[in-house]
Amino acid sequence: MATIKDIAKQAGVSTATVSRIINGKGEARQETIDLVMKIVEDLEYHPNKIAKSLRQGKSNLIAVMVPNLDNPFFGELVGAIEHEAAKHGLRVSICNTGDSREKVEYFLTNMVDNYAFGAIISTLKVTENDLNDLEKKGIHTVTVDRSHFEHSYSSINIDQLNGAFIATRHLIEKGAKRNILICGPEDEKMSDERVKGYQLALQSDGLAFSKYFYGDYTLQSGYQILDALINEGVQFDGIHASNDLMALGALRCCLDHQLTIPDDVKIVGNDNLTIDNYYNPRLTSLSQMNERVSESVINELINLNKEEYTPQKIVMSPELIVRATT
Q1: What is d(CA 297, CA 2) in angstroms, rounded to the nearest whole number?
Q2: In whole angstroms, what is the distance from residue 76 CA to residue 68 CA?
Q3: Could you say which of 3.30.200.20, 3.40.190.10, 2.60.120.10, 3.40.50.2300 is the CATH number of the domain covering 160-287?
Q4: What's the confidence (pLDDT) of residue 294?
Q5: pLDDT band at 153, cuts 50/70/90?
């Protein structure tokens, strides 16, 4: 395996000159640059990234911690982050925790062992103490949405209260007066925010009908909640679900019960997944702004690795993408 010393010897220059040319730093005559880069190509030289990480105490690795990859939202979010990271010469390591504390602890240790450039956290099982420990070890963090605690580090969040308000108001404006909400687990902060937004939208139109239910973000929970309501004879004409999988499960259940969408029931999801455009009927959904979130989170990690940068708290409003279900 070729080394910088081998390249320097063939080029007749110092190893420092070779290092500067390879890393695009410092000045050298164009003929020297051309010669060094030709030798690099001829010898098929590849820098030892592990050794470089050991020297610098930092790699180009960003750890992205998510609760699962069964929900396509997280797959699309990670894909957007990976795309943005590549623009800056950074690469992504996916930490699929299954919202398991044991797995979280494993990945936290792994970040330190691999000199991670930074960590993007979107899971419920990370604590403020974890963030403190990573910071002490030189790994900056940005939490995205699912952190359920206050902390002093960087965060990027979608305004979930406003999102539920926007979605419910849209249903009302489209003529739905008996709207139900299917949100995530009861112990999540996001569920509380979404219930508040839903209720504020009802109050803004003087509607007394208020029914909200806790699912688990799966297709099955959306279907089962709707199936139970329909079998109980509950009358409704609008549904807002806190993610697209539950919305699609609810949609499937409505169709199975011969309810017409959007004439009998109007539905708004939350995620704006790619699949929303291909389901029949196409699903109206709140975009969680994955591209903007990804750009912001990578920029924040890069800035955090500069001296005297103050962590930022960024809140974005979701965007309603109207399709056939409303």
Answers
A1: 37
A2: 12
A3: 3.40.50.2300
A4: 96
A5: very high
